[in-house]
Amino acid sequence: MTATDSMIPAPAGFASPFDVQTPAGADGWQSLYPYYALLSDERRAQDEGKFWFFDGMHNPEPLFPFDTIMTENWWVAVSQMSTRVWPIPTALGIDHRIINGYLYISPNAVTDPEEIARRAVEFGKRAGHYYENWDEIYEQWVDKATDCISRLKAIRFAPLPDIEPESSVFGHRGVYSSYDLLTTYGELIHNLFEMGSYHFEMLNLGYGAYLTFREFCQQAFPGITDQTVASMVSGIDILLFRPDDEVRKLAQLAVDLGLTDAVLGSEDPDAVLRLIGEREGGARWLDAFEAAKDPWFWFSTGAGYTHTDRAWIDDLRLPFTALRGYVEALQRGEDIRRPLEAIVAERGRVTEEYRSLLPTDADRDAFDGLVELARKVFPFVENHNFYVEHWHHSLFWSKVRELGDVFVAAGFLADRDDIFYLHRNEIYSALYDLNIGWATGTEARGVTYWPPEVERRRRVRDALKRWSPPPALGTPPDVITEPLTVMLWGITQETVQEWLGAGDAASNELRGVAASPGKATGRARVITDPEQLHEIEQGDILVCRITAPSWAPVFARIGAAVSDVGGIMAHTAIVSREYGLPAVVGTGYATVTIRTGQLIEVDGSSGVVRILPEEAA
């Protein structure tokens, strides 16, 4: 097997994770990652017998050493909820392994009937408390999350001073800048883990409620699609649409103030801001822009799990591209508001239609209770993303870059972003090395140690990027019961079988989750980096590993969406349904099978994507 093989599995099963070859130039890649995240011979039997799937949703590229803080964070945080806190009757935690730099995960199931029954009793008591008091607990959750963000904002990093400030001396503190640097870094790391715990306090329950409603519908209405089930819950005005709505309001304000020529006068956001500032009424628009930026432009262009997922506030091109599009639409007399009322009306119609098919009052009561609960929990399932992955995590990455500046000033690193080539635990050692040099007046070893080591790690990671990770490895599972695995990643028994049968290179057809109904034909635009979003043209069909909520403005230009990963409640699916676009998610191989410019057909009702012959154009 060559380094660039995509390793599409044979129908009989997936490749063993231990048979994966190291890409050329990536020897020693394991040194970039902690020992506990790697495959090892002493647990070969265990790891080879498990089903591992690539988490391209959160980490589409090889992990930077520091960025593993996010995966290690949720490795514990999400797993402890299912295993130790609730506990979910049929599911334990989600295991992790880093293979060739890419994150693979594996859900653990509970199969013993007695253990399931025992856990169900405990789960019912604990989960029942949360479901019965959901709105109050959610309000408390928002307070905790915003407090965590406020404390993160207050964290500051600065190079060590040439001489300790007089305030430390005459204030008799007894501790000095070296101590502050170490403890502040500890605060930063602890803050991330605190928010990580809040992240999953209610999320597993949210997915669990939706999954229970889905299972009821599948039993009561054989053949019902996931789209129909989702339509009975969707249509809530969730926070993830708020940033895009803010851009729409800014577009309307630009039209009202006669600033359209300034908005359309340049593709450079800084130039547009200068033009607006020179116009009458421009100050009012700029005030509204500044008010919208914080917090709504703390909106990551990725999943928020890697430092390379820059936020709108770091790069205004994406929201300003949307701004121009909305201004042009308003000039054409179009209504740019999202059709929320129509979606809510359709939700009510579909719900009543299926409810009327139930034969007994007991069935209807059960249906009413489940759909009410699913609708109650749904806002948190989506809204938590803005607080956690977008607002908090984008701020977190900016604080790490501040610390990178400290190391640059000390001569340890050439660039602030080089800090991401160090694991978080190595940074404790590097900080102490820096403190030693500052305290003694002797050049710290890090000045000569870290620059060449960072360059070595950069070369290794660049080699890993040239490898195409297969969607799954290991032993196909007998059962998948973990709620996030099913609802978020879209990994089901059907998904596994589709992946197992994907080895037919002659096939021009991909199958996935039918996420949003309708059919569309157009030219593919394969996006593997948010930087490429600016290349999307009107009517293109978006093909990606996974979309981010901040890509919402792009959905005003595309004809349909296709993703490698994701389930019925993934962001690609939710945003596509809100925008009325056909979507197929969880295809496994779309980004390595389809090329930009190819003519493709997306059938969001059946979950099929077809590569069409050119003559079909």
From TrEMBL:
Gene3D superfamilies, per database record: Phosphohistidine domain
* PEP-utilising enzyme mobile domain location: 536-607
- Species source reads Pseudonocardia bannensis
MF terms per GO, please? transferase activity, transferring phosphorus-containing groups
Name the chain's protein.
PEP-utilizing protein mobile subunit
